[in-house]
Design brief:
Layout lengths: L7 H11 L3 H6 L2 H4 L2 H6 L3 E10 L5 E12 L5 E7 L5 H17 L6 E6 L8 H15 L8 E4 L6 H15 L20 H18 L9 E4 L4 H12 L3 E6 L3 E4 L6 H10 L7 H4 L4 E4 L11 E3 L9 H9 L4 E3 L8 H9 L3 E3 L1 H4 L2 H15 L5 H25 L6 H19 L4
Parallel strand pairs: 3-4, 3-5, 6-7, 6-10, 10-11, 11-12
Antiparallel strand pairs: 1-2, 2-4, 7-8, 8-9
Helix pairs in contact: 1-5, 5-17, 6-7, 8-9, 8-15, 8-16, 12-13, 15-16, 16-17
This protein binds NADPH dihydro-nicotinamide-adenine-dinucleotide phosphate.
């Protein structure tokens, strides 16, 4: 805590995991003997670098880039790149730390990393985005590789940015090393279903949670925060399964559509026009828009899927959801619920799907993209989707079984933390001290 006192997000992520581990140490004193906890919270390395680029007015701009390579015990470092003005070392470390556990849960051979920049893509022209991506890769290339570290997208980094990053990587290395980045455009090394994977995977995970209480998505009222990549495809799959999704948001505010959100309009606003969610009401006069993103949690629903950003649900929002009768909360974003909110859910019998389990579908499909790249072939949409469903089901079962084995039946926070921890800890012991 003292060493990382200036990194609140990282401390929060580490604390959430540590709180789950007491029963593991009671049963496995060898983890104490091997000093596993101290080894696990220290990243293998943190790379930070200057990114210098020229804007459309020929002004030279400077941003800071990061890559936190946290652990490669289970496989090559793997994790997204985030371009957002809030990016700092604490946020990069928390995301990379979570990624180690999440990636382990997928059962696929991938370690954990995260990276990005405090560059703000909002309002930038396409040329500026391209020049920034090229400048960013001009430094990042020396730290990554298909068997070393495989970045992907995250907030502010989609297929367009990955395309520019990949183009620059190829130019510098003179090699078509497709497996060096994931989230590429299908047909240019990308996997089908990668775009949909985190949102779809989240809904598949919730389907498993519901199955255990003999329920389904059919006719459930759902609230999804955000309106980016994860949110859009969570809405799509929930609607496919018969749910009524009544609200979504962006960082300015949220829309409520009592008849159920028309997803084509949201896609038009966000994916085509890159506009604000507020404009949804221009298309649907019965819908309402409210300023302020946190108010979305005051809308009564059966299932809440936070898919925007970290710490978007605090204790008060959690209590409001509870008072309004929410049955299931599952995290599409990384760490959207703070510790107080998680406790409110767990202490009041709400089924809670933590991010590292519930949103692992994106990175799992990235690992499937790596497999296709090294095999030099493509699977069909149906093949990848089927594998994704299988992976989400396995993550659910693994987390549930670990929770049961270590004395917290039904608690998927404890279960997912322990299932992942044990795998990484055993790897550290197997591979010796280094
Ligand atoms: P996008 O950049 O595509 O979308 C983010 C969305 O969240 C935007 O609608 C953004 O609105 C909104 N948002 C940002 N901050 C807030 C806020 N404070 N309140 C409400 N809305 C907000 O990102 P993704 O959808 O890719 O990522 C969303 C979350 O999911 C992140 O936590 C990410 O780490 C996590 N995640 C993503 C994966 C992926 O495959 N993409 C995989 C696993 C996790 P605005 O336009 O106003 O900024």
């Amino acid at each position: 805590k003292v060493k990382n006192a200036h990194q609140p997000e990282f401390l929060q992520a580490a604390e959430e995991i540590f709180l789950s581990l007491t029963p593991v140490f009671e049963q496995h004193p060898e983890y104490i003997q091997h000093n596993i906890l101290s080894r696990m919270v220290e990243p293998d390395r943190i790379i930070s670098f200057r990114v210098t680029w020229q804007d459309d007015y020929n002004q030279v701009q400077v941003n800071r880039g990061y890559r936190v390579q946290f652990s490669n015990v289970v496989g090559p470092y793997k994790g997204g790149l985030r371009f957002h003005p809030s990016v700092n070392e604490s946020i990069m470390k928390f995301l990379a730390f979570e990624q180690v556990f999440k990636n382990t849960l997928t059962g696929l051979p991938i370690g954990g990393a995260k990276g990005g920049s405090d560059f703000n893509p909002k309002g930038k022209s396409n040329s500026e985005i391209m020049r920034f991506c090229q400048a960013f890769m001009t430094e990042l290339y020396r730290h990554i590789g298909a068997d070393v570290d495989v970045p992907a997208g995250d907030m502010g980094v989609g297929a367009r940015e990955i395309g520019y990053l990949f183009g620059q990587y190829k130019r510098i290395r003179n090699a078509h090393e497709a497996g060096v980045l994931t989230g590429k455009t299908p047909g240019y090394g990308g996997s089908l279903v990668r775009k949909e994977a985190t949102g779809y995977g989240l809904v598949y995970f919730v389907e498993e949670m519901l199955r255990d209480i003999n329920e389904t998505f059919l006719n459930k009222t759902v609230v999804v925060s955000g309106s980016g990549n994860v949110a859009i495809y969570a809405i799509e799959k929930a609607q496919d399964l018969g749910a009524k999704v009544v609200a979504c948001s962006d960082s300015n505010g949220y829309i409520f559509d009592p008849e159920g959100i028309d997803l084509n309009i949201v896609k038009e606003i966000k994916e085509v026009k890159s506009d604000r969610i507020q404009t949804y009401v221009d298309y649907r006069p019965n819908a309402t828009y409210t300023e302020g993103f946190q108010g979305i949690w005051s809308i009564p629903c059966d299932i809440a899927l936070p898919c925007a950003t970290q710490n978007e649900i605090d204790g008060d929002s959690a209590r409001t959801l509870l008072a309004n009768g929410v049955k299931v909360v599952a995290e599409g974003a990384n760490m959207p619920s703070n510790l107080e909110a998680i406790n409110v859910f767990l202490e009041n019998g709400i089924l809670f799907g933590p991010a590292k389990a519930a949103n692992a579908g994106g990175v799992a499909t990235s690992a499937l993209e790596m497999a296709q790249n090294s095999g030099r072939y493509y699977w069909t949409f149906e093949e990848v989707d089927e594998k994704l469903q299988e992976i989400m089901k396995n993550i659910y079962v693994k987390s549930k079984e670990a929770a049961f084995k270590y004395g917290s039946p039904g608690n998927l926070v404890v279960g997912s933390n322990i299932a992942a921890f044990v795998k990484v800890a055993d790897g550290l012991i197997t591979e010796g001290v280094y």
